[in-house]
Every structure is written in structure tokens, then in C-alpha cells.
Amino acid sequence: MTQALAHISEDGTRTQTVYDHLSGTAALAGGFARCFGAAGEAQFAGWLHDIGKYSQKFQLRLQGGARVDHSTAGAQEAFRRRHAPAAFAIAGHHSGLPDGGSRGDPGDAPTLLGRCQKKDLPPYDRWQEEVTLPASAPPDWTSRDTLTSAFFTRMLYSCLVDADFIDTETFMNGGEKPRGQGQELPALLAKVRARGKAYLANRDPSPVSVQRNAVLRACMEKGKSCPQGLYTLTVPTGGGKTFASLAFALEHAVAQGMKRVIYVIPYMSIIDQTAAVFGELLGEENVLADYSSAEYKTTEEDSLTPEQYRQLLASENWDAPVVVTTAVQFFESLYANRSSRCRKLHNIADSVIVFDEAQTLPADYLRPCVSAIAQLVQHYHATALLCTATQPVLEPLFKEFAPELQLREVGTDTARLYAVLRRTTLQDLGTLTMEQLSARLSALPQVLCVVNRRKTAQQLYASLPAEGSFCLTTLLCPADRRRKLAQIRQRLAEGLPCRVVSTSLIEAGVDVDFPAAFREQCGLDSLLQTAGRCNREGKRPAEDSPVCRFKLEGLPIPEMLHQSRDALEYTADHNKDLSTPESIRRYFVELAALRGEASLDKKGILDALSHGTGGSLLPFAEVAKRFHLIENAARTVYIPLEEGNALCQKLRSGFVSRSLLRQLGVYSVSCYASQFNALRDAGALEELPGGGAILTDLNRYSRDTGLTMDVETGVGLFF
Questions:
Q1: Which stretch of DSSP H or E encloses residue 365?
Q2: I need a surface site. Which of 228, 325, 639, 669 has the fewest CB within 10 A?
Q3: pLDDT value at position 295?
């Protein structure tokens, strides 16, 4: 009997049998799942995932026949054997994890129950002549509760789809492609220890230097000695936590025999900076920066260097020793259902995960995010480190999702650390008019002022002296923001006039050092982040480094900041010093009370997974639709400046590719509907089929202040 085929090479000269493909996929999937005790179940799914290809209809499909469903067959076999996670993974290995559905779903429904109980398939019985299924069962802990089972299903799905991709890709290319190929973690740790030794040998007696060394020493020692688990690193801004947290992560990963370090960054605006620092220290070939504008993702494949090509492949499944990514990429992938987003998930297991600026974990999705972290630490041999100057109070949530986990602080004597590293004096100026604020800023040669609205930043900037004044908002394209930050750092270093008005984008991770700072009314975490850009190196007395909070007359606080402002005022009424760990804790406890529990999962993600929704059990597809940390309400305007001009010409010619759009990202500005429509009605935009537009009237864009807020009528209604 002719052997059933799974694939035929593009040139038609080579074939891969179904048996060989199932065998290869099962072996890879089992290896991926071994670290969390599910090798047998992953192999089981691998052996079944493509048994539908044994049907005669599929064999005709390989010769150019009609399309045929080959995924449901394996799902039905797994379902009959009561392997629900494997059934989900197999059913979705091409089309995405489906909703579970209900028992009344018809056979043509896209749900698992519809497909597994009622869908008719062409005969595929030949699989039993070649395949003997291994005896297996999911680990016992997967039946603990529905959330645990759902998370395990995603991880099993990740193992299967990554194994399927790699085995198919290897056959089609006639051999395995050279993926990340980074150094082993012990070699990277040696580099960090050498740099750490140099830091610790520094005898600079300044309080900042002494305390940075104390933090580094604690991170290196505890990283080596502490067991896998859940940790916090609470260090004032400017206390050296970026390098110290990397040292903890590598010491810990090597001591615990773990596979990689994943560094989760809150904002796109600082991922370049972090990846560059790590790349310089560890070697660029060892650091994968997985975000949309990464160089190896913005170039056509045929022009990639070998190193860029390896990193492009590694970015598909995070096959690298050190990964730097965004919180959006990390958490949305954990709740996605498509194979392209989920195939990397199994590589989060057996990793040290550092969450930089942990206070920025999205409040509206805080419960699903904490639940995912708890699952990874409790069941997938991961260690999580929550790293920030303003540590949120997350113990109650972790206790709810994983009572066995203990949240432990890596640093020592945190209260003393904050006292010694106090480099600013917080002041409350009350209410100021725009004119009064402008006069205060103009009187200072170097000062930072952070405001809540982009339009406010533009208006305030216009009132300042022309020399040495800067405006930083997301109305500037990223290329111009980077250029301005370089100029700002140079002027600060040279002692030249430098007055910066910015929105909150400067607060997290942007390394600047001003002698004074102002912050429009906000939450305590934002206030202290602004303070972290003032006297950062501790070269001036704290009393000579004021950080002033204020309210602008006639300008109400944005609705999204009401509760943060109220929690800050409550804390100020009860704590004389706002910059202590005690004050920060009181602030976050009050903020949680003001928000209420329901607001921490505004889309009902966990309830949908636990109890179903719309009559469907385990609604993976529905949850993926709901879980978006950044709501896509904005439209993109491309700015045809410098290299962006040639890229826009490509768009105009009808050439559109993912690579082109990624390259254009550094010459783009996001607009809400009101501003976009005003620009369009003014004849300033050339609209594109995908919903974006090219700015045709460059008078509407200033390289100093960005895209204009006032178009024709002077109305700009977003912040």
C-alpha cells in the first residue's frame, strides 16, 4: 500500500510521509513540554494532530484537489479518549484555539464540541495501521480548577504548533534553519559578573554609588541562593535596578538550571534603550528584542544579514537566551488563540521573567495578568521578579490565585534605602494659572515639567523661551522623539539651558537628570517617577532639588486619573513624607479600594474562562477578542520626512508589506477620530486602504511639537 504523505516539497522532488511528520512533531512537542511535566501529553497530541491526512481526500488535496479539514480528525480521537486539552490544541493547530461551545452545537459550528461530536469527516482509519498512541494523561495539577486547565491547554497548544511549524519548515527547507544560536547562560553570567565586579570595586563614597552597590550585591547573592518563585525588587529610581535585576535573573537562571531570561518592558519608548544596554554587555547575538520595529523585522528577508535572519526566526518562538519584549506582547500572547501569537508560550516556561516598572501592569486587566504570572510560577518552573521604584500591592491577588506562593523582596532594608537615596524634596504648589507655571519654568535654566495632555504640552512649550526649550509628546513621531532626547541629554551634560515640557512618556525608563521638576496632578506612582528624573545622580542636596506638583487653573484632571489623584491626596493627608515605602503602600491600597475589584478585569476574562460565556465553555477565541491592553481606537498618520518620505512613496505605489509598515512606524503618529477627521477635512491627508493616511500638508507637522492639535476650527479633543 502506498504510504500516506503529509507534505511535498515546493519543487516536487521530495516527500514527507504522515508517519514521519507525526513522529517528528511528537518528539519536538514532548521535548518542549518536559519542563512542566507534560511530555507524554504533548507527544500524544503530536501523534494525533495530522491523522486526518491519512484520508484519501487529503491525499488528493496534495495533488491539487479541493481543500479538506484534516485537523478535526485528531481532535475527535483525543476527545473520545477524554483528553480535552489535546483535543483543543489539535483542533486549533491551524485555525486557532476554538471556543469550547455547547453540546447543542451543530457539526458545522466552529466550536470544539460541534466539531468533535457532530462533524462528519472523510475516512482516515489508515492511521491505526501505522500509529500506536503513547499512554499519557495531563499532570494531576491541571484539574485543580478551570483557570489552571485553560492555561495548560494554551501551553500544550504552544508546544504542538511550534513543533508542527519546525518539523514542517525543516522538511520544506531540506534541513533545520539556524535559529538564535546564542551563548549558554553560564557564559552570559560570566559577563555580568565581570561587569558587576567592576561596579563593586568602585570606591566612590557617594550615597547613590554605595547604595547601588548594596542593591547589586543583594541581587547577585539572592539570585544564586534563593529557590524558584515569586520576588519583588523595590529600588528608588536611579538606584541601579536595571543592571541589578539582570544580574539576579542570570544568577538565578544558572543556579536553577533554567533556559532563558525574559525582560518585560512597559513601553515601546524604552525598549530600544534596554535592549541596547543588554546587547552591549552580553553581545547582540544573545539578546532578542521582540517588538514591531526591531531591525530584523523591518528588512526584507533577502537583505537580512545571517545574524538578523537567525534573530527573525528566533523571534517567532523566543528561541534566545535573553528576550526583551513589551508587556502588550507578553500578556496579549498569553491570552491569544492564534498559532502565530501562541507558539512562543512554551518558551516562557523554565524562564526568569523580570517585569520592569511593575506598577504599570494594566489596571483594567490586572487580575488576568496576575493570574497568568501565578500560573507560570506555580506550574511552569518560572521565576517572576516584579521590579519598580513604586511597588504595587499585589499580595492579595497572588494569594487568591496561588495561596502557596510567597512574595519575597530581594532587596534588604528597603526603608533605609529610600531614606538614603532621597534626592528630591516634594512640594505642593496648589493651583497655578498657565501664565504662572510658564513664568516659573522660564525662570529656571534647566527644568522638567510633566503634564497630562498633549495639547497642554504644546501650549506651554509655546510660552517658553525659544533657546533650549523642548516639547516631548506622542504627537512627535518616534524618530523626532529620539532626536530630541539626544539633544536634551547633551544640553543637560553641558550645563546649557534646557526646559522640557513632556507628557508621561518621559516618566518610565528615560535616563535624564534635571535639577528641578514639576508634575501636573496625578497619582503618587507618576509623581515619584517624575521625581526620578530630578537629581538622579544625587549630586545636589535634596533641598535644592524640588519636585513640585500642581493643578492647572480651569483645566480639570482627565477622568482616567481621578482615582489616582484621590488616592494621592488621601496618602498626603496621612503621611508627611510621600516618598517612603509606607506611603507608596498606603497609596496602592487606597487606589485598589477606590477602583473596586470589578475594575481589575473589565472585560470579564477570568469569569469567561471559569464559567463560560454566551453558552460556550472555555471560550478561547472569544477571550482573545476581548483581551487587548491597548484598545485600537487610534488611526495612524505617516509623516513623509527623511527616510519616511521614500517609504511613503512605496505605500502610494500600492506596495504594502508588514516589513514596510514596521519601518514606517518610526515616522508615524497615532490619532483619535476627531483629530484624524479634522486633518482629513482640511485636505491634509491622503487616506490609505488599511485605515491609515499619509500627511500631505507638512505645515500640519512641526518637528518641535509634532502633529498639530488645532485644525481649522482649533478643536483637539484627546489627551
A1: none
A2: 228
A3: 40
